[in-house]
Amino acid sequence: MTILITGATGLVGERLVPRLVEAGFTCRVLLRPGKRAPANVEVVTGDILDVSTLEQAAQGLSAVIHLAAVFRTQDMDMIWKSNLDGTRNLIAAIKAHAPEARFIMASTAHVYSIDNSHPGREDDVVNPQHAYPASKLAAERELRASGLTWAVLRFPFVYGDGDGHLEALPGHIGTWHPAQRMSTIHHQDIATAMHMALDGAMDGRVVNIADDATMSVYELVGVTGAKVPSSSVPLPNPWYLTMDVSLARSLGFTPVVSTVYEAQRNGLI
Q1: How far is 243 from 240, CA to CA, in rounded Å?
Q2: Catalytic residue, candidates 35, 81, 95, 136
């Protein structure tokens, strides 16, 4: 099975690609010029915004794992261009050159409303206002309407394998309440979910992927040895950034790393 991976040098892709290679998949990565290639993969130099490079990338594929996205920038135009237009370009290339390929797209828990009355569910009506989740949701809709065999995996806070994401958390939480809870997922279980999706278990579905326990900002920051101020002020949006994972469990997804504390005990942070 030949898989095209976009975003292969990003936080998720850098850790997913070696696991796919180790599992025996033939991996092709789309890399911008100057990017360092992962080991034991086929490299196509190009970009999802450069349509001329996508024909070569799409030839002979069995599947696509679309991870490439722009998130932390103040350039709203670039977020929309990369996350929506880039996805459109990739969909068009796959339809033209590998129409039987399975197209798996990574999305985000940030699409769910801040004032949800329950953990985010895949069938919630969502209308995110910030550019990143709004552009990802628009890209999801493009894929769902494409006529391809597709799956969308929505990920929460991703951590582990020395990615530094937990350590960087204090710099991103701003004025968040320390009791705010988040769903989490370890890189090992992104691979777990991707294996299932490549086998077709998630075809035609949007699926929340998370481990077995949400954690508060206070606890997550504490895992790194840092601290955030305590507070007993009531939490205004208790379900923000938490995900209902009952669909994933019904499909057979069981995380290998069930909690952040388990990852910490086993040296997987």
Answers
A1: 8
A2: 136
Instruction: Write the pLDDT tens digit of every residue in 173-228.
Output: 888 999 999 999 999 999 999 999 999 999 999 999 999 999 999 999 999 999 99
pLDDT digits (tens, 9 = 90+) for 249-260: 999 999 999 999
95 flagged as catalytic = no
Distance CA 224, CA 133 (A): 27
pTM above 0.70, yes or no: yes
